[in-house]
Amino acid sequence: MGLVHSKQFKGKQAQILMLGLDSAGKSTLLYKIKFNDVFLTSPTIGFNVEMIETTAGIALTVWDVGGQHKMRTVWEDYLENADCLVYVVDSANKQRLEESKKELATILKNDKIKNVPVVVLANKQDLRGALGAEEITKTLNMKKHCADRNWYVQPCCAITGEGLSEAFQKVTSFAKSCMKAKQEAFAIFRQD
Fold first, then answer.
1. What cellular-component terms does GO give this entry (predicted)?
2. CB 3.0 to 4.6 Å from 158: which of 25, 51, 65, 122, for a disulfide?
């Protein structure tokens, strides 16, 4: 994905919400895509926010919200203006995938995020036993939970950056479509 380095970005801005359980690798992914570098991160208490400028004429404001159990109770507070949900799973930690599936299903039932597209990042593909895209799709029951929206599952590795360019191209595409649909709905609403 092409990134633009400038002092001020004058294009459209999309709000991207990045969620997932603690230790899934959200912050590491965010800083790898933003700075193309690996940072030692500690569990996020609260949130991190970074703007990623793309060559597609859109800036992605990525909200990386902590995934510890106590933080999940406030995830709902970040849903309202999302143009795309990025949900990160540790695809090598099979013991926590059921918990991750439950949390994702809860989020997707929320009316604040109705019709918002979802990109699942199946992180930690560099680890032995990591599940691929098809297995993650089945495990998270994506076809059922995302039947009313665009969705995509991308295997990736936050350490090497593998799969991140493809993932954020999809995020950008989905966010642009979502923003367009919101504008059209608003225009119709204003006419009534």
1. cytoplasm; plasma membrane
2. 25
